[in-house]
Design brief:
heterodimer, A: alpha+beta, 4-stranded mixed sheet, 5 helices, 42% helix, B: 450 residues, cytoplasm (chain A), Thioredoxin-like_sf (chain A), redox-active center (chain A), GlrX-like_pln_2 (chain A)
């Protein structure tokens, strides 16, 4: 099977929602839910991110990129997105990029995380 | 303890004093060039009367016999042919066997003497040893009588060869006793020096000057050798300097608050203090890259601080607890903000702690992988170790994140509080750690009851 990369039309009839460009995929996945975490099942800092959101009463949607066949592309794209030290964990809230764990924690400490969650509909008072 | 022994062995003590004085007289008669040592002799017996450490009384007896052994060697050398006569008064003071040894076994004499010399560390035994010469020699004479050759004239003339051997043994025993005493004295003086050094270190630390390296470990464990990387040692010195600077900042802040200086001045001091804390975080960040375990283990801090250690430093939520009462009165808005901050720091800490737990578990699983009881296949073992190392390196990320949390909490507090409140808050935090460090010093120098 052939794939055509880039945003041109895909000539191969695969499953419905296939997007070949990893960046597009990320954006699509991020937009699909209120809170999206790109994670690695072996990464402990990702575990921290997941625990944090759970403790806030939020149920994030988690994509384990190590279990994705094109995970490496995703990983590179994520790294390009927020320019952090590690591709995972990367958090999107309401379709918008929040960033890596340091951004998430910083926003929680300065009190901006919870309003953001409420805005995205992930938290109800 | 020495006094107990003195009181319980009074009889023997007295007895041995008499014998010793007898020795003294022989001493004076025979060997004139030992005159000066006589004085020593008298002196040490004087000491025996009081409660002194055992080694002094031991020394007097051993010294005495040692001199006589020398005399004996000289004598024996000069009297090769004549094995018959020994001057009686010389013989009286050669205890050929200690009291506790069976006189009937010849080899045991040597054993007896060497064990006797080992036991000379117990004054009572030694005094027995010294006091029994007449008795023992008699026994020796009796034993020798029926069993040895015709050259024995009577109970007081044992074989010179035996005498020489016995004297040599005594000489060796005496030398080893002296060596042991010297060694023990060296140990004692080193110990005192060490205690003195430890006190000096604690005193210096109480003034907020950290002497670098693992002074903590040295104080707690005595002369433990500390394996500290050069980066860590450098960090410790930088931290020591940071503490000094911090102390000056706090002093200035304290006087600024109590003299009610204008807010603009206070604000400058506050900004300086916050920048100084940021400097500390930066220092830590540099070391975390090369030696995360030095930070993580808290070895750069004092023991009391280490009690509260979380991920290589203080818990941010702890900081908030500390300042809660120091910055009142708070407006409602401030209270909401601070309680919110407390909650979010707690949630963040909890998440990080759980992440660390996951790391521990993952590490254990990696190391255990195959069964631990079978001999490892080298390839899989090395592969496991490589995975384990990469997992371990993620510890850096946790410590870094924890430090970020501390920094952000401090800055957020500053945001929520007024200038005067912020000044008091920073002072309170500084004083809290100062007291923990003082507590550590006091703890390390506390009187111990054995």
């Amino acid at each position: 099977m052939h794939y055509q990369t880039g945003s041109g039309s895909c000539k191969v009839p695969l499953k419905r929602s296939v997007a070949t460009d990893p960046m597009e995929r990320i954006e699509r996945m991020a937009a699909a839910h209120a809170v999206v975490i790109f994670s690695d099942s072996t990464c402990c800092m990702c575990h921290t991110a997941k625990r944090l959101f759970c403790s806030l009463g939020v149920s994030p949607v988690i994509y384990e990129i190590d279990q994705d066949p094109r995970g490496e592309d995703l990983s590179k794209a994520l790294l390009r997105l927020h320019g952090g030290a590690a591709p995972v964990p990367t958090v999107f809230i309401g379709g918008r990029l929040v960033g890596a764990i340091d951004s998430v924690m910083a926003s929680h400490i300065n009190g901006s995380l919870v309003p953001l969650l409420k805005e995205a509909g992930a938290l109800w008072l | 303890m020495a006094s107990n022994k003195v009181s319980s062995n009074n009889k023997e003590h007295h007895h041995s004093t008499q014998i010793a004085q007898h020795h003294h007289m022989q001493h004076g008669d025979q060997i004139n060039h030992h005159q000066n040592q006589n004085n020593n002799h008298m002196f040490s017996f004087g000491m025996m009367q009081s409660s002194t450490p055992f080694n002094i009384s031991k020394e007097s007896g051993a010294y005495d016999l040692g001199d006589l052994d020398q005399a004996l060697f000289l004598y024996l050398d000069g009297q090769d042919q004549d094995q018959r006569q020994m001057r009686p008064h010389t013989l009286n003071i050669f205890p050929s066997e200690p009291m506790h040894v069976e006189p009937s076994q010849k080899p045991s004499i040597i054993k007896g003497i060497s064990s006797g010399s080992k036991k000379s560390s117990e004054p009572s035994n030694h005094r027995n040893y010294v006091q029994e010469p007449a008795k023992v020699v008699k026994r020796e004479g009796n034993r020798k009588g029926p069993t040895s050759s015709s050259e024995q004239d009577g109970p007081k003339t044992p074989d010179p060869k035996t005498l020489r051997r016995l004297a040599q043994n005594r000489e060796a025993a005496r030398k080893s006793r002296l060596r042991k005493k010297a060694y023990v004295q060296q140990l004692e003086s080193s110990r005192m020096k060490l205690t003195q050094l430890e006190h000096d270190i604690q005193r210096a630390r109480a003034q907020g000057v950290f002497l670098g390296g693992n002074a903590n470990a040295g104080g707690e464990q005595g002369l433990s050798c500390t394996n500290i990387s050069s980066d860590a040692a450098l960090f410790d010195m930088e931290y020591a300097r940071w503490l000094e600077e911090h102390h000056h900042l706090m002093v200035e802040l304290r006087s600024a608050i109590h003299e009610h200086r204008p807010e603009t001045e206070l604000q400058i001091l506050i900004d300086n203090s916050l920048a100084h804390y940021d400097q500390m975080i930066a220092l830590k960040s540099v070391l975390v890259k090369s030696d995360v375990f030095h930070i993580f283990s808290g070895m750069w801090r004092t023991p009391a601080e280490r009690c509260f250690l979380w991920m290589g430093g203080v818990r941010p939520s702890e900081l908030i607890k500390i300042i809660m009462n120091q910055v009142e009165p708070l407006t409602e808005q401030q209270m909401v903000g601070i309680y919110g901050l407390q909650q979010s720091t707690q949630e963040a800490e909890e998440a990080l702690s759980q992440g660390l737990e996951a790391l521990n578990q993952s590490l254990t699983e990696t190391i255990v992988c195959d069964t631990l009881t079978l001999p490892p296949n080298m390839n899989t073992y090395m592969a496991q170790m490589a995975v384990a190392i990469s997992k371990l390196s993620t510890l850096e990320g946790f410590v870094r994140q924890a430090d970020s949390l501390r920094q952000q909490t401090l800055h957020r507090l500053h945001q929520l509080l007024t200038t005067r409140q912020a000044a008091r808050c920073i002072l309170a935090i500084g004083e809290y750690f100062h007291r923990l460090r003082a507590l550590s010093s006091l703890w390390l120098t506390r009187p111990r009851h054995d």
